[in-house]
Amino acid sequence: MTAYITTPIFYVNAEPHLGHAYSTIVADTYARFKRLCGEDVRFQTGTDEHGDKIVQAAESAGESPQEYVDRISRMFSDAWPHLDIEPDNFIRTTDADHKENVQRILQQVYDQGDIYFSEYEGLYCKGCERFLTEKELQDGKCPDHLTEPDRISEQNYFFRMSKYQEWLVDHINANPDFITPERYKNEMLSFLSDPLEDLCISRPTSRLTWGIPLPFDDRFVTYVWFDALINYLTGLGYPDDEKFSTYWPVAEHVIAKDILKPHAIFWPTMLKAMGLEPYQKLHVHGYWNIGDTKMSKSLGNVVRPRAMVDEYGVDAVRYFLLRDMSFGLDSGYNSEAVVARQNSDLANDLGNLFSRSLTMVGKFEDGKVPPCGTMGKLDLALQESCADMLATYRDEMEHFRFHRALQAVWKVVSKANKYIVENAPWELAKDEANQEQLHTVFYTLLETLRILQVVVSPIMPATARKMAAGLGVDHSDTLEIAGQWGGLKPGTAIQKPEQLFPRLEKKKDAPRPAKTKDRQKPKGPEQQLEGIITFEDFGNVELKVAEITGAEVIKKSDRLLKLTVKAPEVRTIVAGIAEHYSPEELIGRQVIIVANLKPATLMGVQSEGMVLAAKDGKRLVLASLSDTVAPGSRVA
RNA sequence: GGCGAUGUAGCUCAGUUGGUUAGAGCACACGGCUCAUAUCCGUGUUGUCCGGGGUUCAACUCCCUGCAUCGCCA
Predict the structure, then answer these.
(1) Which CATH architecture has domain A525-622?
(2) Of A235, A451, A455, A570, which is least packed with CB atoms within 10 Å of its CB?
(3) Distance, CA of A385 to C1' of B36, in Å
(4) How far, in Å, CA of A147 to CA of A149, rounded?
(5) What is the location of CATH 1.10.730.10 in chain A?
């Protein structure tokens, strides 16, 4: 049996974020699971590197497109090892073999008449240098440039996608697992209930040169999907390499829902046009929201996988992402949830189970796997729950329901903890007569741990390695073999390793590293957007009463006033209140200021703090106290 | 505007073809144990199952309708 699993190739106009990491961890976990099942697996990820956005991003970074894509692509390939992600292939759309492959396919499809030259009319924004869709417009204008786009027509090449619509609908209906989970299948079927348009696949070189030239017309380059999607074939050495014949028939793609249409509609029809079989399955997952806000660059709440790993460790991150998201649905990320998972599931339940078990074997069994005696009711029950769990686990993992697979696994963890209490080995150990029963208890327990180690390995490879080392077992067996009861050899030496998972403090606001440079970028998404802060968070903000002793207009600005305040030391504060207060009326007033704000220079004036005011629609009203107090009094 | 999804305990969610007192984990409270990472085990509290109407002997479950959130499409 073979398996081929891919992530999307990620567009290199930004650094890797949580969403990229999730897709890739999912694919990696699935690849490891399939390997565990004894299958011959190929796992591919990579980067998508052509297009106008790349050219723009490179320009603003002061680099050539090639330098730029090399740099960002490396950020992706470098990020994955930190997450224990091990792809077999990392493909880049700027690779020579990919370009060649795309051109060969284009030529083939062109020759057979499925690509034609035609005119395209649309709304073109000169500022953006691209066509805008009706949807993007606000009041008929480009939202970025606030200009009305021109209705212009452009000649381009089109792929006859519509020709394959009927076939695709039939294919989706005939293969219920082609697009999963089902909601996305339904969405696509609904989309396909209307006539499909043909797909524009080129851009004139007058507008874009950073792309793969069309082999039959060098005035054009390939546009987006006909370039990007083909990576899944290039990575297998299509058409001649034997990897292609081995792995393509079992191809499964993991994507996020934003690129559903290209993968569910464009790609199968492209493959059909090439005369190839479509992929087997498309696994579509949802978004990670930050708190309850979408993650986006412009909000500045992008979560960087590296930062998560540094804070929680790889396995905690992998576990959390797979355990907390129902595959297919959106989920909310927040640091408290990560800490809760880490502490309760990982440290308390699994980590402590492992720790207490090995310690006792050290103490009561001389650090060796004991022989198993006659199993009683409790022992058999635990053995049976392992077997039940394995069946569920297999099925859920197979269907990308990782959260459910993990639930099933943790049921066993919980039962094992209960098993210990029920048997109270420390009591049994007090009497020689109980020796056989004691042996049986520990054998059963260690076997359970061994099986847990096996099933946990695709999700948390490092933890599984530690557990295997502690139990003195090799972890190279397949699930079939490793899942069978009785794998541990009596007499094997047990070695208790370092604790598997540390317990974390609840307070998520450990002293933040003072990043002095990036003042524009609001960082630490958790602190920023979760709505709730701890008392300590609040304590970090030093609020004081200040008396305004001087105020003057800053000439170059119509919003800013330069205030001199006494708190009780004299400071200068620049406040954006000129439209609401005149300098005269401010003198002598007491206001509340944030006293420990990092100084900032506004319009050439250094501001040492911030004045609090309420915003009521367009009105701005300064915060004040109900009575006069000594300047500098702390507000809390 | 069209199509669809979702709305269940303080939080995150399970609830299979309608069938007794609606479940799990987390959190919280109390009790037990002492092998363990102050962990583990037990017990317990909390619900207008979004609102309204209907079908039925019986509705969280089916139908209609309203509200809210989200997705796809136009």
Answers:
(1) Beta Barrel (2.40)
(2) A570
(3) 23
(4) 6
(5) 336-482
